Amino acid sequence: MPSKSKVPSYCHHKASGRAVVRINGRDHYLGQYGSDQSHSEYARLIAEWRVARQSATSESKATCFTADPSSTVSEVLLKYRDFAREYYAKDGKPGKEYVEMRLALKPLRELYGHTLAREFGPLKLQAVRQKMIDSDLSRGVVNNRMNRVKRFFKWAVSEELIPSFVYEGLRTVAGLKKGRTSARETDPVQPVADEHVEAVLPHVSPQVAAMI
User: Fold this and answer.
1) This prediction's pTM
2) DSSP secondary-structure letter at 135?
3) Contact 45, 28 (CB under 8 A)
4) 97 close to 88: Cβ distance less than 8 angstroms
5) In 3D, which of 150, 93, 151 has the Cα closest to residue 126?
6) Which helix (H) or strand (E) holds 93?
7) Cβ distance 88 to 98 under 8 Å?
8) How far is CA 73 from CA 95, 113, 116, 121, 162, in A?
9) Cys bridge to 141: 77, 109, 137, 207, which one at CB 3.0-4.6 A?
């Protein structure tokens, strides 16, 4: 992280009569000392200097996490599996959501298991999505599984296993839109035939029958 320091000063280079500012050990000559041009140039350079320092600080914070930066996607997945097996358990057994998470994360592991987790980005996520589409999954199923993949990376950030910028990048990948993707669409759900409804009514309570 950059050390704290005061703003570089606007100075007079007496030998040449020009204004000068020293930034990161380098002198920048600004024009005639005291001129409007020199002050404008000084303001521009200081603005750039501030932006550069802020960017360096943000990057330093983003890359500060407790896990080994050489951790692969597969290694993070193993840690998540231990968490999910307990978190999504039902009656002491893996619940439905745990099974769904495993299905969603399978193509991620197959394609990018050996990739450094910190280097996983939006284009790689789109490749995972394409693998799902190529598997003939419907658009709705693909979107649901993509959300679960993002949830996995969000968990990894919360556990400080990967930098936060990884998840922030993945959030930019939008869901598939109807009519704008090659993913298969499911047939619309049709209303139940009247004869089936009539057959059920005698076997339910009056309250349920009223709702039907």
Assistant:
1) 0.60
2) T
3) yes
4) yes
5) 150
6) strand 93-94
7) yes
8) 23, 5, 6, 12, 10
9) 137
Alpha helices in 64-187 (DSSP H): 73-87, 96-112, 122-134, 139-158, 164-170
Task: Give the up-direction half-sphere exposure of residue 148: CA atoms within 13 A in the CB hemisphere.
Answer: 24
Phi first, then psi: give them for residue 23, nearest 5 degrees: -125, 120
Rounded to an integer, what distance in angstroms lies between the CA atom of residue 100 and that of residue 145?
8
Short-list 165, 144, 136, 138, CA closest to 153: 165
What the block records as the tokens of 206 is 């009056």
| Number of residues that this document lists for the chain | 212
Could you read off the pLDDT of 104-115 as tens digits, one per residue? 999 999 999 999
- From residue 142, alpha-carbon distances to 78, 128, 181, 200 in Å are 23, 10, 11, 35
Kindly report, residue by residue over 75-88, the tens digit of the pLDDT: 999 999 999 999 99
pLDDT digits (tens, 9 = 90+) for 135-145: 999 999 999 99
Please state, in angstroms and rounded to a whole number, the distance separating the CA atoms of residues 168 and 71: 19
Which amino acid belongs to residue 73?
Answer: V
